[in-house]
């Protein structure tokens, strides 16, 4: 078996894991100690990490093919593993989406509740750290593009995998849109637009986890029939 496709695929996965690490660490990197624990940093970038985890899980299917011993075992448990992980991911995404929606409504309500609510909003969310957010998004986007380049270097046949291509488009597209939502609006509104971006991303994650959940059922049926 040629080593180049395997190495490129594994390096592509590592690049996406680096992007996910940056996205998940964004709340810590954007935390402003001067405002105390009540100040919640933006949630949009962290929501992107949830979507990218779904993408990396798909890439693992490709990487397993390069290891025959693992592939045989993985083929037997793939359906049930995908089902269980999809259920947990779906529940977590729904809870996070609800939390994002609640936070969004709170911020909008405070901003419009002149004068004291507006003062509270500006004190908590009026100075979104756009500089750090841009740096994190820039690094994440770079790692994703590098990862996709490595995957294509492994095999252009990946372009025939419509699900993988759609996931990649969703990841890159939402990263770009979130960057616009954090750059175009006035600074005091960025916390709200960031929450909108995070909510939309989480809804996309919910849709994808539902697709994975439903898609895992035929594999489970085949595994049960082969066992019987």
TrEMBL record:
Superkingdom to which the source organism belongs: Bacteria
Entry's transmembrane regions: 45-67, 79-98, 104-124, 136-158, 164-184, 196-221
Keywords, ordered alphabetically: Membrane, Transmembrane, Transmembrane helix
Protein name: Uncharacterized protein
